[in-house]
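note to self: dont lose this again. the chain is below, predicted strucutre after it. 105 aa total, dont forget to put it in the shared folder this time
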Amino acid sequence: MTSVAVVIAAHHAALTIGRAVRSALAEPEVVEVWVVDDASTDATMQEARRSDDGSGRLQVLRQAVNSGPAAARNRALALATSDWVCVLDADDHFLPGRIGRMLKA
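---
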């Protein structure tokens, strides 16, 4: 099976990060979810961790200094080991089956 990593850069996304993480973890092809909190001062990290399904696929990292979404994504990209990488915004989510449909295309 093809493996997919999902990379989520997050800054002040406490209200939306949970839905993004849960939707990524719900996709069976996703073997890694990398959330990089870009120095948020709200509960973004805590909400991301709270959304973990216990499968061991979620990694939550924190940037000490806000460096922007590209730097946050690049940090996760350097660590991802999957066949494919998919970027998901912290205020967005996947509809069920999205990754499978993309892989078939």
